[in-house]
Write a structure and sequence with these properties.
Helix content: 40-55%
Shape: globular
Number of helices: 17
Largest sheet: 5 strands, mixed
Distance between the termini: 60 Å
Number of strands: 14
Strand content: 5-15%
Strand order of the largest sheet: 2-8-7-6-5
Radius of gyration: 21 Å
């Protein structure tokens, strides 16, 4: 017998009960939340696709590892296990634990950026760009143009446009560019990967210009799976082998371990340069904690060390990406406009195509996410002009060609039946999409407004 279906490479030994609320309850909840799904209470959510950050299911080995936590203030044995794991799996020499990814972004920005610098990257990420701006830099998008086109089928839409990088170097000078920030599986582009060939070419360009490459490796294992499946010459290599090769092309990394490594909290800054590491240690002591625990407990460092190795297992990645593909294909088959090709951690609904009657100034992605919750109890999030924010100098909204709703799949949490329910909810809502009204701000924070902003429907 030939088996063509795949199944999750785990079995369930504990469950968390969830409940479906009534439409009346959900209408009340979304009004109280100011039409912002981030402000909903978890208990009011049926299927939570808000994020994959810190919400994955840890394995029995990770939970067992937490019981071996060494909570010594200095020199925890769990730190040294984590440090050895990062060296072995990723190749980086020095590790500084942080409370989560943005702690690492903060430290990196403080030690490497001077006011007036420019930091190019393959599309912005919200917290990353903010830390760069707070340190005095200007972010410059150098991703290929296909990344801004939701219907493009380019297999590596996370690639860096080398001509854009070269033009920036010629315009401002290499001395004004402390590093290039390269994200693997670019979140804001729809979870789209970068190819090893592109990264290798960027490495050559940066070496010639004396510019470092800093790796946002939050979802590196997912990116590597796409390299394995799509890039010539890598089908016979393991996820672990390709990951090590990819990291070797960079000079350091920030990591939100709450994604790939499936822990509830934690992250790290990894570096190869000893001088930068020493500077980072000084900042970690100020903002996070001693360099051997940063912002993490010993038990969480142990769970992270175990989770890193689990994340690089081929069977795990095949099931992880397979579940995202399953949801995406159901939506494509039903004619729902989504970002293509299907990305690594989420399905991104094209709110502009679904709600053509709303202008971008009426925040169609925010409105669609709120409407989907009311219809089904499925919580998603906006990734469009609200997330893009405002230019700190001019106050104008940053432009965003992509106006998306992210349906983010937590790792090892939901079954295919949950994906069926989520797909049916979107398909059903599509039939009444013209009834969805736009939104306007009633409260707008000065930064990262998508987290705490509140809205009302447009009259």
């Amino acid at each position: 017998m030939t088996i063509t279906s795949w199944a999750e490479p785990y079995k369930i030994k504990m469950v968390e009960l969830i409940r479906m609320t009534s439409r009346q309850e959900r209408e009340k909840a979304i009004r109280e939340a100011g039409f912002n799904t981030f402000l909903l209470k978890s208990e009011d959510v049926y299927i939570d696709l808000l994020t994959d950050s810190g919400v994955g299911a840890m394995s029995d080995r990770q939970w067992a590892g937490m019981m071996t936590g060494d909570e010594a203030y200095a020199g925890s044995r769990n730190f040294y296990h984590l440090e050895e794991t990062i060296r072995s799996c990723y190749g980086y020499k020095y590790t500084l634990p942080t409370h989560q990814g943005r702690g690492a972004e903060h430290i990196l920005s403080k030690i490497m950026i001077k006011p007036g610098d420019y930091v190019p990257g393959n599309m912005y990420f919200t917290t990353t760009r903010l830390h760069q701006e707070l340190a005095g830099a200007t972010f410059v998008d150098v991703i290929i143009d296909e990344a801004h086109d939701p219907v493009s089928d380019h297999p590596f839409k996370g690639n860096v446009d080398l001509a854009k990088v070269t033009a920036l170097i010629e315009r401002v000078g290499a001395e004004k560019i402390p590093y290039i920030c390269v994200a693997t599986c670019v979140n804001m582009a729809g979870g789209q990967p970068i190819s090893l060939a592109n990264l290798r070419a960027l490495r050559e360009l940066c070496d010639a210009s004396g510019i470092k490459i800093m790796h946002d490796m939050t979802r590196v294992a997912e990116n590597v799976f796409f390299i394995q499946q799509r890039e010539e010459g890598y089908r016979d290599k393991t996820v672990a082998e390709i990951t090590h090769e990819l990291c070797s092309l960079t000079d350091g990394a920030t990591m939100s371990a709450k994604k790939d490594a499936m822990v509830n909290i934690g992250g790290f800054l990894a570096l190869n340069d000893e001088i930068l590491y020493e500077q980072a240690c000084e900042q970690v002591v100020i903002y996070e904690g001693l360099h051997t625990y940063g912002g993490m407990a010993g038990r969480d460092m142990e769970a992270l060390a175990i989770g890193i190795r689990e994340s690089l297992c081929d069977d795990h990645m095949r099931a992880r990406i397979g579940q995202v593909e399953y949801l995406g294909k159901k939506l494509i088959d039903a004619g729902v406009p989504i970002v293509r090709p299907i990305g690594g951690h989420a399905i991104f609904l094209d709110a502009r195509a679904i709600l053509p009657h709303l202008s971008q100034a009426q925040f169609p992605a925010q409105a669609l996410a709120a409407a989907l919750y009311v219809e089904s109890g499925v919580r998603t999030m906006e990734r469009g002009i609200v997330s893009a924010g405002r230019n700190p100098e001019t106050g104008a909204n940053y432009g965003s060609r992509l106006e998306l709703v992210r349906m983010t799949i937590p790792r090892r949490v939901y079954t295919q039946s949950h994906m069926d329910v989520a797909a049916e909810a979107v398909i059903d809502l599509m039939e009444r999409a013209e009834q969805i009204r736009g939104l306007e701000f009633t409260y707008e924070p000065s930064c990262l407004r998508f987290f705490m902003g509140r809205f009302k429907t447009v009259a």
